[in-house]
Amino acid sequence: MAGVRGFLEMKLGTLKTRYRDGTLVVVDRELRRCVMVPDIALTLQAALDDWHDIRPRLEAAYQLLNSGACASMPFEPEQMAAPLPRAYQWLDGSAYLSHVERVRKARGVPLPPSLYDDPLMYQGSSDILLGPHDAVVAANEDYGIDFEAEVAVITDDVPMGVLSADAAAHIQLVVLVNDVSLRNLIPDELAKGFGFLHGKPASAFSPVAVTLDELDGAWQDNKLHRPLTVHWNNQLFGQADAGADMQFDFARLISHAAKTRCLGAGTIVGSGTVSNYDCTAGYSCLVEKRVVEIVESGTAVTPFMRYGDRVRIEMLTPQGQSIFGAIEQVVKPCP
Predict the structure, then answer these.
(1) Range of the domain at 174
(2) I want to staple 150 with a disulfide (CB 3.0 to 4.6 A). Which of 55, 112, 177, 284 is the partner?
(3) The pLDDT of residue 206 is above 60
């Protein structure tokens, strides 16, 4: 079926192997079977490095897999690494201003007017990116461990100074993210005036990355218009719509990131925590719920995560089919 830009749909993942960057696999539409394609590309980064030549070959493998016309193996999400276990660049925006407003309110910091026109973005560590079932490891429970459910895109090579109108063409894949935050470390770091370090440990990614064409009508205006479902300790915590209340779309975020630099193929650009002004859909992180509790009652009742806590992040089609597979993580102490 032709997609939004004339390509076929495709789902890709990275199987954990003895190689540090894992092994690229093509995954079927229902997330049941997969096949390694070493004759096409050994890793996802290798595919992205030559994307426009490699993509048609991966699409052909995807067609064969879905038709049952090739040998395959079971798709096991717990055996998957992040689609890019190491990325040359991980840039996380904060495109949902309802989230920014609530978090800054918790810190007693006003929202600068410039944030309504100029995206907020930080450069995170990307030398180690976690798979969907890897643990959230923290040295201390008192760090204020929080999950942050996000959407992110993976680009091909992006030229410096690219305009938003042209940046959309550089979006090649979409993933889900758990951008873990250590809330109690962040205020002191930001007070130094030089950004995050300790407060932002390794982020985790969904089992598969998908092409825009795979998202059918949910991808509109460079946004993903589907609820992002979050469960905390097996209880529904939020289903905020990722397309609603997104102040800056992904093309705008990419253009912002490329203002003074080129972005190499395999750059990951995050949306920031998905958040809606209407709280009835719930939340994508703990700190937002805590801020609302403080406003309503003067006290935060919801705790941060403790060792043994679990979080599940997933996005479903209207028919209930998982699009990216689920991020399922447990919090563990540092060995």
Answers:
(1) 84-333
(2) 177
(3) yes
| Residue after which a domain boundary falls, among 29, 55, 79 | 79
Q: For the residues 292-308, what does the mean pLDDT come to? A: 92
Q: Of 28, 44, 79, which one is at a domain's C-terminal end?
A: 79
What pTM was computed for the model? 0.94
Which residues have C-beta within 8 Å of that of residue 236, sequence separation ≥ 6? 229, 230, 282
Note whether 50 and 133 are same-domain residues: no
- 182 and 299 belong to one structural domain: yes
Task: Average the pLDDT over 71-81 and give the result.
Answer: 97
Among the ranges given (134-138, 196-200, 205-209), the one the predictor scored with the smallest mean pLDDT: 196-200
pLDDT exceeds 90 at position 1: no
CA angle 79–77–227, rounded 5-degree value: 150
Question: Are residues 255 and 204 part of one domain?
Answer: yes
Residues 184 and 314 in one domain: yes
Asked if the structure places residue 3 within a domain, the reply is: no
Please indicate, yes or no, if residue 96 is contained in any of the structural domains. yes
Alpha-carbon 92 to chain mean position: 9
Q: Which helix (H) or strand (E) holds 270?
A: strand 268-270
Partners of residue 54 on adjacent β-strands: none
CA distance 185 to 315: 30
The yes-or-no verdict on residue 8 having pLDDT over 70 is no
| Structural domain total, the chain | 2
What contacts 276, CB < 8 A, 6 or more positions away? Answer: 96, 98, 240, 241, 244, 245
* DSSP H helical ranges for 83-170: 97-107, 164-167
For the chain, give the mean pLDDT: 94
Mean pLDDT of 215-222: 93
Specify which residues 130 forms β-bridges with: 204
**Dihedral (C-alpha) 106, 112, 117, 120: value to the nearest 10 degrees?**
-50
